[in-house]
């Protein structure tokens, strides 16, 4: 089964390599996943403007990045990615105050049960984020730990939408560097 140019097994293999530290595989995975996520978001968000959809895509990619170690490598990656995209889309609609109905029957066969949360994951994330420069830490706390929207976090930190995306990208790079250094 292919979609977006790669088979499910390819996505899964790329994620396995990415989790093991292969930056090239991770870059390729994100290159392959992004247009598929974008298409999914746009299809489910008919009538929403492109910037709103792109925010949902970015939130989905951030969630994939932050939660990548929770993926069960014995399962295909595509359903896991789709589930994250659907959750982020529903969250975005909720923040906007729009009722969303996503028929569970459409996805029942592909959705694994949520794994039990790792009780140390939040503590570890807070510890690692706490080692970042204050602005980076504040941005990641707002988006990832508090699960606030881009607009709210941007306003809180005095950032435009474009400035927030740039700051987020740089903060994630610094965070990844800290993690690689054995934080």
Automatic annotation (TrEMBL):
What are the residue boundaries of the RNA polymerase sigma factor 70 region 4 type domain, all occurrences included?
125-175
Q: Does the keyword Transcription apply?
A: yes
Query: Which branch of life, at top level?
Result: Bacteria
Domain (RNA polymerase sigma-70 region) spans 35-98
UniProt keyword list? DNA-binding, Sigma factor, Transcription, Transcription regulation
Belongs to which family? Belongs to the sigma-70 factor family. ECF subfamily.
Q: What is the name of the protein in this document?
A: Sigma-70 family RNA polymerase sigma factor
């Amino acid at each position: 089964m292919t979609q977006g140019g790669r088979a499910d097994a390819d996505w899964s293999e790329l994620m396995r390599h990415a989790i093991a530290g292969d930056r090239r595989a991770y870059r390729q995975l994100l290159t392959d996943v992004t247009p598929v996520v974008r298409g999914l978001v746009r299809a489910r968000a008919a009538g929403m403007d492109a910037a709103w959809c792109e925010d949902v895509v970015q939130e989905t990619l951030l969630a994939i990045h932050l939660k990548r170690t929770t993926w069960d490598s014995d399962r295909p990656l595509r359903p896991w990615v789709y589930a994250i995209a659907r959750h982020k889309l529903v969250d975005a609609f909720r923040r906007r105050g729009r009722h969303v109905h996503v028929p569970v029957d459409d996805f029942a066969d592909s959705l694994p049960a949520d794994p039990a949360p790792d009780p140390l994951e939040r503590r570890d994330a807070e510890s690692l984020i706490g080692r970042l420069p204050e602005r980076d830490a504040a941005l990641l706390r707002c988006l990832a730990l508090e699960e606030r929207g881009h607009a709210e976090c941007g306003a809180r930190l005095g950032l435009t939408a474009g400035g927030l995306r740039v700051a987020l990208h740089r903060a994630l790079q610094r965070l990844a560097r800290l993690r690689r250094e054995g934080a």
